[in-house]
Specification:
The complex is a heterodimer of chains A (338) and B (502). Chain A has 338 residues and is mainly α. Chain A is built from 13 helices and two strands. Chain B contains 18 helices and 22 strands. Chain B has helices spanning 44-51, 74-80, 99-104, 118-131, 147-159, 177-192, 204-210, 233-241, 294-301, 324-329, 339-342, 350-355, 370-384, 400-412, 430-442, 456-462, 485-492, 497-500, and strands at residues 4-15, 18-29, 32-38, 59-64, 67-69, 82-85, 165-169, 196-200, 213-218, 221-227, 258-266, 274-279, 282-287, 309-314, 317-318, 332-335, 363-364, 367-368, 418-422, 448-453, 465-470, 473-479. Chain B is globular and about 70 Å long. Classes of the chains: A mainly alpha (338), B alpha/beta (502). Chain A: It is a multi-pass membrane protein.
């Protein structure tokens, strides 16, 4: 291996992490107040929900699938938890459980559509996305859910968001500094570690990668292809509903207009993750780094007074660079699994 | 025979270190059907791809009616008058369009005006259809037609260009007998118009029906040309399957207890009954041409499909697996053929590729133990002599033969009752083949082994017993000691004993 090759390999492997490190350094000097625990937590908080969704979609990418319905599962979960507590006057526990079951069920339907009905993954989950966007508006006739709202039958909603539920979105743990780390950040890290362990260390994760790489060969090696594919979509559904619950807990109301960007942001994070450590494949660590990368960049730019409307442009730019890293530089994309 | 339409001299083609065509000399006379036979990997499809401009030859030349011909792309070949109908028929038609549009598809780009005149298209299409005696309404959508009609349309469209050479790549592989008859009638008419036809097939019945000449191909070379009044079919099959005196001696061992028994298993509805027994410490080779039912039998043994009739027993207990996973649980391992699509996990390294069916046995509480995987892999890498830097190399960095060693090692790494290997020597160099064969024989006393082979040498090198499969029926059984090759070859090519006077 010659030197040019070595440098190239190093760039492919560590380029993105170095870029992230460089950005943090740059903003620390250039932007007043960027370096600091509070600011760091803010970055984490801004990407926690997106990151959780991105970890779920990573699982579907691993089995060579795709889940476009995650954004709408999250907003459905947002509306559903609000509806359960405010209109049906159920406890926080019931609301959370109902949302998780809903996420798993949607994932199951997605998986069955794809595996049993042979609908292509993009189309099946696109259909599911539309269906859920419509469905979440029907019980409230298209309005947001909040205490005191008028119900379709003319009565007033008496229920409230319980304190325990709001705790999920708003509580901050004391770590050295008082009220530092919010619950969603803890949950993001927890989900990240769980998905990472599952994908990297367990035989189930390894088989899911095998299925994504060569489905036929995996089936002939005795892998339960149907089961693992459905499981991937169910994981994706559950993580998306967790994201929705946290969003509801943060907002404190069932806001019909929230969560518009969730799908694109989380898919971008998962795709940026391909470039991390030169993996050139979906991976949980990369996804988390991808989400943080976007968070750092936006936080830094905002602190340097970049206008809010440039944000999507920046995200798009990062995504394109990451994809070039993945496919052009490492050359792994070309050999294309099948 | 008349004029030579196409003359191929010294054609060579290599992909990397892999010499696929090693100097092909072949002539295609006008007005005759030349059948090209060759086992998997003999280089047939590469030859076709060179002729129709998909690949460029490394050396040698092709001339068409005396003019040098070196197509840079498929369009060139098409313009020069070489038309190819590929095996996968949907490449040749646009199923969403109607017959008329399909027949006229090549001419659409050259038509004048912006708007199409459906009437003009149909009129022209009808002319083509009548000329070819298609007998379908040109307004029918192609998606509503059967495979045979689609194939006819692909050929008819090609014929509208008045080709000089028509290449048909296994055209009957998805046709029923009556559909094939229609195709043959069409080929007969084309032959009469003076087209040189290169017909690739393994079905002896097809070949008997339409061949004017037979050319056998083997290991990238033409291994036999047969022409004249009475074609020597058996000679052609022998030339295709080949038999060099093999240097590997097999000591036929004693049979152990029966492991797998097939009782009247039929591979398809109304097919012949297969009854056979595989014993412990015995290697059974099952030989047969493509389409003889080898792959179907392998699929039945591994639970991928269910037999149409009959039953199997494994170690005396009923054996009717519904999935590969169940077969593996019962102790049946199968190394499928065509490793690129059925075996190799391209994103994985050697270790993960070798252990993929047995992750559960290499993990505790679902957590994979890299150390255990590694130990199993390194043992296999050593015994099979896989050439690699380490067990953590990406599988795609290995040569074909070494990849195949990993695929076979995958199933040898854990003990089993029955090992099924479907064409394990496909696309493998001679050294790798010897290594794999030697290891399979050396460990064969621990299990029963069934090997499906494409070439006779392979069977002679590895088997204690050779069974012959033809048209899904067992037609011969030989103990691998002083085999008389003539009847073996005859059985493989499907000629009855009576015909040969044996």
């Amino acid at each position: 291996m010659n030197d040019a090759q070595k440098i190239r390999d190093f760039a492919i492997r560590y380029g993105f992490l170095l870029l992230l490190f460089g950005l943090v350094l740059y903003f620390s000097f250039a932007a007043q107040g960027f370096a600091g625990a509070r600011s760091a937590v803010f970055v984490f908080q801004s990407v926690a929900i997106t990151g959780i969704l991105a970890l779920g979609v990573t699982c579907t990418l691993v089995v060579d699938g795709f889940d476009l319905s995650i954004g709408s599962v999250a907003t459905s979960s947002l509306m559903m938890s609000a509806y359960f507590m405010v209109v049906l006057e159920q406890s926080a526990v019931v609301a959370v459980l109902a949302c998780l079951v809903m996420g798993a069920f949607v994932g199951l339907i997605n998986g069955l559509l794809i595996v049993k009905m042979r609908v292509p993954d993009l189309l099946a989950t696109l259909g599911m996305m539309f269906l859920l966007i419509g469905l979440q508006r029907i019980p409230t006739e298209g309005r947001s859910v909040a205490t005191g709202m008028t119900l379709p039958d003319g009565s007033t909603a008496e229920g409230t968001f319980s304190a325990g539920f709001l705790w999920l979105g708003r509580h901050r743990f004391d770590v050295f500094i008082e009220n530092l780390i919010p619950v969603p950040v803890i949950i993001f890290i927890l989900v990240g570690v769980l998905i990472w362990v599952f994908l990297e260390l367990t035989r189930h994760g390894r088989l899911m990668y095998a299925i994504g790489s060569n489905e036929r060969a995996s089936a002939l090696a005795g892998a339960n292809v149907t089961g693992y594919k459905v499981a991937a979509y169910m994981i994706s559904g559950v993580t998306a509903s967790i994201g929705g619950i946290l969003l509801a807990a943060r907002l404190g109301r069932g806001d019909i207009a929230s969560g518009n960007n969730l799908l694109l942001d989380s898919v971008a994070a998962a795709l940026i993750g391909f470039a991390v450590l030169g993996a050139a494949k979906p991976n949980a660590f990369g996804t988390a780094i991808g989400a943080l990368f976007v968070g750092v960049l936006l936080q830094g730019l905002t602190m340097m007074n970049a206008p809010y409307y440039t944000q999507d442009f920046v995200k798009g730019g990062v995504l394109v660079v990451a994809l070039v890293f993945t496919f052009a530089l490492s050359g792994r994309g070309r050999r294309g699994g099948h | 025979m008349s004029e030579i339409a196409c003359d191929i001299k010294g054609l060579r083609k290599a992909f990397g270190p892999n010499q696929v065509l090693r100097g092909i000399n072949l002539t295609l006379p006008s007005g005759a059907v030349t059948v090209l036979m060759g086992a998997n990997g003999a280089g047939k499809s590469t030859l076709v791809k060179v002729l129709c401009g998909i690949h460029q030859a490394d050396a040698g030349e092709v001339s068409l009616f005396g003019t040098r011909f070196a197509p840079a792309n498929p369009r060139d070949a098409f313009r020069a008058g070489i038309v190819t109908v590929h095996q996968s028929i949907n490449d040749g038609v646009a199923p969403e369009l109607d017959v008329a549009s399909n027949l006229m598809l090549d001419r659409l780009p050259a038509m004048s005006g912006f708007f199409l005149s459906d009437r003009a298209i149909r009129r022209e299409a009808r002319k083509i259809a009548e000329g070819m005696q298609l007998g379908v309404d040109v307004r029918t959508p192609v998606s509503a037609l059967g495979v045979a009609d689609r194939q006819m349309i692909a050929i008819a469209r090609a014929m509208a260009h008045e080709p000089k050479v028509l290449i048909l790549d296994e055209p009957t592989s998805s046709l029923s007998a009556s559909e094939a008859d229609r195709l043959f009638a069409l080929i007969d008419r084309l032959r009469d118009t003076g087209v040189a036809i290169l017909y690739i097939s393994h079905r002896m019945s097809d070949i008997r029906r339409i061949a004017d000449r037979i050319v056998s191909m083997r290991d990238g070379e033409i291994s036999g040309t047969f022409e004249g009044e009475a074609l020597d079919y058996e000679g052609a099959v022998t030339a295709m399957l080949g038999h060099r005196m093999t240097e590997v001696d097999v000591n036929v061992g004693a049979q152990g207890a029966p492991v797998l028994q097939l009782n009247g298993v039929a591979l398809s509805e109304g097919g012949a009954d297969l009854t056979l027994t595989a014993h412990r410490s015995e290697v059974v080779a099952i030989a047969g041409l493509l389409g003889s039912g080898k792959t179907k039998l392998a699929a039945v043994l591994f639970g991928l499909t269910q037999p149409a009739a009959g039953a199997m027993t494994l170690d005396g207990a009923a054996y009717a697996p519904r999935s590969a996973a169940e077969a593996i649980r019962r102790g049946v391992h199968m190394c499928p053929k065509d490793r690129a699509s059925n075996g190799v996990i391209p994103d994985f390294d050697i270790t993960n590729n070798l252990t993929v069916p047995f992750f559960a046995r290499h993990s505790a509480l679902s957590m994979l133990s890299r150390r255990r995987q590694r130990r199993a892999t390194e043992a296999m890498v050593d015994t099979l002599g896989v050439v690699c830097q380490s067990a953590a190399d990406d599988i795609l960095t290995l040569s074909g033969g070494n990849q195949q060693k990993v695929m076979v090692g995958r199933w040898l790494s854990q003990p089993c009752k029955l090992l099924v290997l479907d064409e394990p020597f496909q696309g493998v160099d001679i050294q790798a083949r010897r290594d794999i064969g030697a290891h399979i024989r050396a460990t064969s006393d621990q299990r029963a082994t069934i090997v499906f082979v494409a070439e006779i040498d392979e069977a002679l090198e590895i088997a204690d017993r050779i069974l012959v499969l033809n048209e899904e029926a067992l037609v011969g059984e030989h103990r691998n000691e002083n085999i008389d090759l003539a009847p073996l070859m005859a059985q493989i090519s499907g000629q009855s004993a009576a015909q040969l006077g044996i």
